Amino acid sequence: MINIADEKRVSARGPTPEVQLQSLCDVLNDAQKPEYRDAFRALVKRWLDAGSLKQMVANDPGLWLDVSEAWKPYFTPIETGAAWSVTPIPSQTKLPSTPEKWAIRHFALLTLNPLRDKLRGPCPRCQSYYIRKRETKVYCSKSCGNAASASRSNAVLEKAQRQALLRSAAKFWPQWTEYKHPNRSFWIAGRVNGSHARVRTKNGWKPVKQVTAKFVSRNAVEIQKRV
Ligand SMILES: [Zn+2]
Question: I want to staple 205 with a disulfide (CB 3.0 to 4.6 A). Which of 77, 100, 172, 198 is the partner?
Fold first, then answer.
């Protein structure tokens, strides 16, 4: 197992902590076995929510007992004769592996991994777990971070456009008469669209989208508040 004092030697013999952490992370994102993935995710979430392993143990000593009994050490003599390699083997191999038991076993490996604090997730955008490379990282990848910021600025733009459309509709609201058009909403939508309202964005002015009579009638209350 990955024992800090023994890290180099174990690394040469088995998966390095990096490789092992990546494979645990892959398990957390494994869509092939959703019930196993979700059971493991639930444990990881409890650990991340608790803030530390110590707090997690304090919150649920029974669970911790299961975690610590999930594996037993298997000692192997190595070439020098002076040192021993320790490999964990599942301690309940004969029992059917429920998703919960399976998850506890994987979680136990995670608690032994010296890099475990780099595991983060779920990403607020794609829900994946990931290994963070920087302290402040919130999203799993650059593309998720960029997409999230694009959708935030889209939301800001949408809101600004809506306000501009409502203001424009309010300007035309009192000008409508039945002589101009029998349908007020239809007439106002035509005026609003003809006025080519624009909104200011950080990339300059942008024309607002076209409105429909339905938009006007649906927002009649909002529009009249602005008249
Ligand atoms: Zn993501």
Answer: 198
